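Deliverable D4.2, example record:
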Amino acid sequence: MRDLPLPLALTARLSPVAVLATAGWALASGPFAAAPAAEHRSDQKTATQSPTAPSSKAVSKSYAGAPAPCTSVTVKTITSLVPGAKTAGKEIPSTDTKLRRTCSWNALKGYDYRWLDVSYEITDSDEIAQKQYKDRTGEKSGGGDVPGLGDSAYSVVNVTTEDKQQTREGVVIARVSNALVVVTYNGSDFETKKAPDSDVINKGAIKAAKEAVATLEGGQKS
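Output generated by the structure prediction step:
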């Protein structure tokens, strides 16, 4: 078997990636309404009114931190999706591991290359996570919803070509309460120069996403 050079785009992905954590948002509570003071007494009989309690919307925050991403997917799944990869994975450095954690697996076995990323991102509320989910899925076209995965989930697969070498990449974005789970799975065949079938990449990404979401849901909530 001859050694083949990786395409420039894939070589760049193999270098360490510094992942910046998303900054938290400060939440301000509404002011308390003061009870009205009586300015004078009246002999006229009036209906008694109780002071109205201040209106404040509780902020929903089910997950206080991100789980360990490198144990979010089973060894069996890693072996299946990324043949030849070290099943322990490699966690990407983060400035705040409570807010964001990512693990990567990649390997070249024979002529087949595979890469898998699993990322957890924790926001301060369901509303913020919903907005981020909407923004991210809006940037991607050609995908579709994944029913039964988290509160909402979206999957998209695209193929790119560089120096006649195809790479197919699938991305699954799932929202679970105030958390986002993002799975990226791609592959190339350096012998045929062709990418794996779309169905293979899409199903692989969804399988990993289902396990990552199950890990999140089975973890500690705030």
